[in-house]
Amino acid sequence: MKTELVKIEEDNIDEKALEAIERAGKIMKEGGLVAFPTETVYGLGGDALNPESSKKIYAAKGRPSDNPLIVHVCCMEDVEKIVSEVPEAAYKLADAFWPGPLTMIMNKSDAVPKETTGGLDTVAIRMPSNKIAAQLIKAEGGYIAAPSANISGRPSPTVAKYCVEDLDGKIEMIIDGGQVGIGLESTIVDLTVDTPMILRPGYITFEMLQNVLGSVDVDKTIIDANSKLKPKAPGMKYRHYAPKGELTIVEGSQQNVVEYINKEAKSYMNEGKRVGIICTDATFDLYKADEVKSAGNRENEETIAKQLFKILREFDDENVDVMFSESFDESGIGQAIMNRLLKAAGHHVEHV
Ligand code: TXA
Ligand code: MG
């Protein structure tokens, strides 16, 4: 299959862009697949109400079909048609955070095929704020099933280049909307339980949800490496990303961390290994290795969220054998950053 690549600027959706978006919507309506930008990461979209489209999505990603897809909508009325009932909490959360990087789990109606929900009776729903995504959902007719647009086991794409790398030749179209704003996948909150529960941390933090809902639980498996429990979001059980190299997170005082990483890096490089380091602006000049990359500024962890997956992809491209990363504060969006980093590291943490 020839994959068409279309460039659209989110802040300049002109006639030509609209025409391309209409065409992309039609492709999905007719059962095809289109990768597109959202504010979190790129999504691989198909018609959420067509079981054949969902099957194609699993096939293109090489994803196990028990791992449910998120249904993307563009208005609240459309949510009502795909759930058995909209819980009060959903209206409150939608008021506060939609359109935006929050996914809510509700009990599904018969309109949603089980192929889309990985066999579950619940459905994950999100209303993205990215303007290209919003237009595209409208053009498609209202319901786009979209996992992140990567091959299963690779980091979610934050630039279109990585959609091309993973999906070229397998889908009808890729819309390049530039680098995404957030860089980590949406927060997922389950509203089918008595106390709403966070199943995946993201840009919308525990504190933000608590402010709106009063009480919120967190799935214990999100951060705890030793948890024997099964994660409640089926996808969270997979080690999201198996980097080509081995990643270790190093935790401790800044001085100890820098000393430890430099010592390890030196000894690996002496063995002829390529070493990559993920650090921050403040420590960038202190490291010596083949590839040293600052993820951003600790004072503003959003900068780190935005760069993390891109850096991990770059290390793969650069054939890095061994990677070290500084550790991050687990409050606010730090919880999401550490959740993704721990998964990439297979929970390998050194305390120094
Ligand atoms: O930011 C995002 O959420 C991106 C963009 C494209 O919207 N999408 C995304 O989708 O990250 P994906 O498929 O890579 O991750 C969806 C996660 C998986 O861990 C899946 O198991 C969980 O959501 N999930 C989906 N439906 C669920 C359900 N009914 N119950 C529990 N977990 C569910
Ligand atoms: Mg994913």
Q: Which short descriptors sum up this protein?
A:
5-stranded parallel β-sheet; binds threonylcarbamoyladenylate; 352 residues; 18% strand; binds magnesium ion; alpha/beta
Overall description:
The chain is 32% helix and 18% strand. It has 352 residues and is α/β, with parallel strands linked by helices. The strands form two sheets. Strands 1-8-2-3-7-4-6-5-9-10-11 form an eleven-stranded mixed sheet, sandwiched between helices. A hairpin with a 6-residue loop joins β2 and β3. α1 (15-29) packs across α5 (131-140) and α9 (301-317) packs parallel to α10 (334-344). The mean pLDDT is 95. Residues 147-148, 156 line the site of magnesium ion (MG).
